Amino acid sequence: MASRPRCPRRRSPGRGVSGGGVPPRYLRSRCLRPRSPGAVSPAAGRVSRVSDGGRWSRVAPWVPFVGGRSSGPRERLPRDVYVLGAVAFFVMVGFGVVVPVLPVFVRSFGVGYLEVGAVVSAFAVMRLVANPFVGKVVDLLGERVTLAVGIGIVALSSALVGLAQDYPQVLILRGAGGIGSAMFSVSAMTLLLSAAPSHLRGRSVGFYQGGFLVGGMAGPAVGGLLAGISLTAPFFFYAGTLVIAGGIGLALLKRHDRAEVTASAPPPRPLRQVFADARYQAACLANFAQGWASMGVRSALVPVLVVEVLRRDPAWTGIAFAIAAVVQALALVPAGRFVDTVGRRPAIVSSFAVGAVVMLLIPLVPNVGVLILLLCVYGAAAAFEGTAPAAAVGDAAGGRGGQPVAIFQAFGDAGAIAGPLLAGLLADTFSYEAAFASAFVLMALAAVFALRMPRGRAAAPAA
Predict the structure, then answer these.
(1) How far apart, in Å, are the Cα atoms of 90 and each of 145, 272, 462?
(2) For residue 332, how many other CB atoms are within 10 A of its CB?
(3) CA torsion angle 335 340 345 351 (round to 10)
(4) Residues 6 or more apart from 332 whose CB is under 8 A from it?
(5) Residues linked to residue 58 through DSSP beta bridges, in sequence order
(6) Of 460, 446, 463, whose CA–CA distance to 202 is shortest?
(7) Other C-beta atoms within 10 Å of 151: how many?
(8) Could you give the CA distance from residue 371 to residue 302 in angstroms, rounded to a whole number?
(9) DSSP three-state, residue 402
(10) Is 224 helix (H, G, I), strand (E, B) or coil?
(11) For residues 71 and 63, is the Cβ–Cβ distance under 8 A?
(12) Torsion of CA 81, 84, 90, 91, to 10 degrees
């Protein structure tokens, strides 16, 4: 009897392949195996029987399975997910246009850095305050109408900011915009979770957040150009993109019956268990640190740094953010693959460590070129910072939304509120270096705390 060719196999524990009952260790390597009626090939994300014949043939490479489902061919997301992603993109393009201009615009009223931070924080403060009441508005008006009304409030307040005559008007109008933002974000997330089935919810949330991320990072390119025309032009442009977003939502989103629930949905994990999960704790701290660094330091102080320290035109802020946005967009796909295949833990640890170092170096830059380089490095890290913590929350909560996601987002809002105020105060009292050092400390702390997370990709909540 002829000897059987040896085939190196990497033996490791894993789930059986759906439908074939064959452990993944027998499918991990591309090697020669005899065809037989019982042979399997994990092609196209499923198990397919191959005909017998006794000939030696190559078996397709192993395809990873997560949570009992194939990560191969993608099932199409519900239409509402794509619509909400488009809405998020237009909202954040307009918001990104305002980001590089707002601090300089506020400074034009003759106020200090603390007042600049207060305007930036007012938006997030009112979001945080309004969130508990928005649920009742959604029940009264419905998700689609609440979304459109919320976007309309932000659009109107933005246009009025462009017409403001003094600092108090700007502060009040930005706070009103925060209320509209809360109405939009809560109603949009409610629609997203009701439209997406459980096995597509993670990808649906990721697509939705991707619209925010790409739009928010691409907007400053237009904002820098509009700033060369007028400091008020970006606010009117923002109002226009919001009108487009609201129109898309009203026209294309389906009407949903709130009484409909998915019968197959598993019960949500108890909040006490979610809060005690190291993955959830690390994700919340990471979101707070990112809110502090991105809104409190990068968005609030980098534009002022360009104008008042580097002595360059405000348009350079938009150029720098635009180049960094391209880098971040290019990093989104590999970042998502890294988070899903390597794990949430290494993604958070490495990206926040890199971001911390960048925050420490930015106030020391000698010219705009070095600043752009550092912002590009930060943009690449931000692609991981935006995906890994959210994925960790999904793991800890068992793939269900609701309160765990709301609290996770509240940590980000809290960082966005405290960051501009305290970073501005540190810049006024001490120096730019002290303000950026605060972001370094928080991001480094988030990276260290993430070491408590379990190793691996653990897609299911701990028992």
Answers:
(1) 18, 37, 38
(2) 20
(3) 0
(4) 210, 213, 214, 383, 387
(5) 32
(6) 460
(7) 29
(8) 9
(9) coil
(10) helix
(11) yes
(12) -140
Q: In the prediction, which pLDDT does 304 show?
A: 87
CB 184 within 8 A of CB 91: yes
Reduce the DSSP state of residue 277 to 3 states and report it.
coil
Strand-strand pairing, 56-58 and 40-41: unpaired
The string of pLDDT tens digits covering residues 270-287 is 878 989 999 999 999 999
Pull the structure tokens for residue 331.
């990093």
CB contact at 8 A, 37 and 52: yes
Q: Which two tokens stand for residue 432?
A: 């730019």
Token code pair at residue 259: 């009484």
Q: Which fold has domain 270-463?
A: Growth Hormone; Chain: A; (1.20.1250)
CB 225 within 8 A of CB 292: no
Which residues belong to CATH 1.20.1250.20 in the chain?
Answer: 80-258, 270-463
Return the HEC string of 17-39: CCCCCCCHHHCCCCCEEECCCCC
Provide the CA 320 distance to its chain's centre, in angstroms.
20
For 28-87, write each residue's pLDDT tens digit. Answer: 444 444 443 434 433 334 343 333 344 433 333 333 333 334 444 556 777 888 999 999
Q: Which tokens go with 35? A: 């065809």
**Each residue of 159-175: pLDDT tens digit?**
999 888 899 999 999 99
Partnered with residue 382 across adjacent β-strands are none
**H or E segment and range at residue 49:** strand 48-49
> Can you give the pTM of this predicted structure?
0.69
Q: Are 410 and 131 in contact (CB under 8 A)?
A: yes
The answer, yes or no, to whether residue 8 has pLDDT greater than 80, is: no
Token duo for residue 372 = 């752009």
User: Torsion-angle region of residue 166: left (phi > 0), alpha (psi -120 to 50) or beta?
Assistant: beta
The shares of helix, strand and coil residues in the chain, as percent rounded to the nearest 5, are: 70, 5, 25
Q: What is the 3-state secondary structure (H, E, C) of 331-393?
A: HHHHHHHHHHHCCHHHHHHHHHHHHHHHHHHHHHCCCHHHHHHHHHHHHHHHHHHHHHHHHHH
Maximal C-alpha separation, the chain: 94
Pick from 397, 316, 298, 393: which is nearest to 348 by CA? 393
Q: What per-residue confidence (pLDDT) applies to 70?
A: 42
DSSP for 284-345, written as a single string = HHHHHHHHIIIIIIIIHHHHHIIIIIS---THHHHHHHHHHHHHHHHHHHHHHHHHHHT-HH
Q: For 231, phi and psi rounded to 5 degrees?
A: -70, -15
CATH number assigned to the domain covering 80-258: 1.20.1250.20
